[in-house]
Specification:
- The structure is a homodimer.
- Chain A is α/β, with parallel strands linked by helices and about 325 residues long.
- Chain A has a single domain (about 5-300), classed as Aldolase class I (TIM Barrel).
- In chain A, about 40% of the residues lie in helices and about 15% in strands.
- Chain A contains 13 helices and 8 strands.
- Chain A has helices at about 15-20, 30-45, 65-75, 90-95, 110-115, 120-140, 160-175, 190-205, 220-230, 260-265, 275-280, 285-290, 300; strands at about 10-15, 50-55, 80-85, 100-105, 145-150, 180-185, 210-215, 235-240.
- Chain A has an 8-stranded parallel β-barrel with strand order 1-2-3-4-5-6-7-8, surrounded by 8 helices.
- In chain A, β6 (about 180-185), α8 and β7 form a beta-alpha-beta unit.
- At the A-B interface, α8, α9, α10 and α13 of A face α8, α9, α10 and α13 of B.
Chain lengths: ~325, ~325
């Protein structure tokens, strides 16, 4: 690997494209292409990858091969292999498949919770509790993260109260979640709100405060990531080529583009552990696996600046 | 006007589209369309507009009607009418036309200075001095701003040293510029650099520190504006529909989109004085005046969020 990884990273970029991206497009990427794409992401230096969802294949045919994808991802040493699970049944399958980390969607908006997982928020917290118990029994080393959807606003119910977000963060931590992330599922977040809400959640649950999952729906994705960085967030979800959104939040679109996010942090002198040239090269297997699908990214289009030197320790 | 303007604004959005935008596209917008567009910008609540450049029409035919455009813009009470002038001759014409504020491009990069205005940086500072003297003689109420191009990097020479930027800011202030803004002409700025450089310039020239003029070339435009806001910048250049760039900085593109910038600040609870619905409506006369020209903006495409309430004092 490149010399980037010889010093500790300042920021962890959690790549969600193979899950969040692929499940939001109609086309099904063939398994062989998924594996090549994941290999390219690993080669670029990404060290946490959400590789798929454990959901019934009849609901999301894009994820039918998730166990095989997990098996392949596990052959890469040093990579945290994550999967999304909406319920206990999915969690059991993911744990049996050998993932290192589970992520569970828990909606701050009751309306979105019912639309997304057909459960109330309270019932979803019970599910988190059951999943944590199962994890303790059969795979105690595995981490459980909850990703709080619609934490910054909801396209169905509109505003989401900050008290609800803090309450739900406490509930999730109380149910045993190791990390509680906040997601701007709908692209409604603004930097002041991001700072305020992460501060409040950290005051409530301390070091269990997890990742920022921001969308670029209204162009504020990177500004919101910067705001989260400013208040101590160190893990950021992003999707190569900006692939993905949420099919159950009408009007939502546009994950933060991994390439632009890495460029921002590296340009700031922070070590992401990611090599930007290789990251941009990882768009090729994505394009080959999803012919005709639009992918985004300002940095890949503009190219790296003249005189660009990644901020890394060379040996 | 709407109730937005009944309390002081927290942020001044300086619209540069009619100058920076129009001079960077090949098509020439007819004068009548320019006037309708400016009327729509004023109706949206914009209170500072860079309406054109005083440059020879054979160099920039897009700006041949600048005096007429200024004359019309001056009929709007409460609007600061700005024009760009590259030299003393342009300044004299602009002052005779009655503008309220001049902006002069002064490049931090010697290579860009020679390419853009065919003068060294030192010679350009002399020009600033001569323009300030002329202003004192014939129009003492007019403000003179320098906009420091390539302050964050240059596509021709690569890195631009921060010492050069601070030195040039002092020179411009010493030559009598009322405001010294910093421009990311080439889209190479990052938030850490923006904070550092505005802090250094403010330490050197205090309250003469002027606007942030950011580009979105690599997607960091709004993050860089947020960073500038965090260190006390209160004036931001932006262009409706993201029109414009710099034709003499190869590879540079993409002014910050006014609509997205206003959305960010308003969502943060800051009063820009701008009505977002009317601002989005001001895209129509722009489109009609430049048929077929691509214009950008994530917020206009996504629409305002459900439950959106602009942060204004209503009476």
């Amino acid at each position: 690997m490149s010399s980037t990884n010889l010093r500790p990273t300042d920021v962890l970029i959690s790549e969600v494209g193979p899950r969040d991206g692929l499940q939001s497009v109609k086309a099904v990427m063939p398994t062989a292409n998924k594996l090549l794409w994941i290999d390219a992401l690993v080669a670029a230096g990404l060290r946490e990858i959400e590789v798929g969802s454990f959901v019934p294949a009849k609901l999301l045919p894009q994820m039918a091969d998730v166990a095989e994808v997990v098996r392949h991802a596990l052959t890469h040493p040093g990579v945290t292999v994550m999967a999304l699970v909406p319920n206990l049944r999915g969690a059991e399958a993911a744990l049996r498949a050998g993932v290192h980390k589970l992520t569970l969607p828990v909606s701050a908006s009751e309306a979105h919770s019912l639309a997304n997982v057909r459960k109330t928020r309270v019932d979803m917290v019970k599910e988190v509790s059951a999943i944590v118990q199962l994890r303790d029994e059969i795979a105690p080393g595995v981490k459980v993260e909850t990703g709080m959807s619609t934490a910054f606003g909801c396209t169905i119910q509109g505003e989401v109260s900050e008290d609800d977000v803090v309450w739900l963060a406490k509930e999730c931590a109380g149910a045993g979640a190791d990390e509680v992330g906040l997601s701007d599922t709908t692209g409604m977040a603004n930097p002041a709100q991001v700072r305020r809400l992460f501060d409040k959640v950290r005051a409530a649950i301390g070091e269990r405060t997890g990742a920022a999952h921001m969308h670029n729906t209204r162009g504020l994705g990177l500004a919101n990531c910067l705001a989260a960085w400013d208040v101590g967030v160190r893990t950021f979800d992003a999707s190569l080529g900006g692939l993905g959104g949420c099919p159950y939040a009408p009007g939502a679109s546009g994950n933060v583009v991994t390439e632009d996010l890495v460029f921002m942090f590296e340009a700031m002198g922070l070590n992401t552990g990611v090599d930007l040239d290789r990251l941009i090269a990882a768009r090729e297997p994505l394009k080959r696996g999803l012919p005709g699908e639009p992918i985004y990214g300002m940095t890949p289009e503009a190219g790296l600046p003249k005189g660009w030197v990644p901020h890394r320790v060379t040996v």
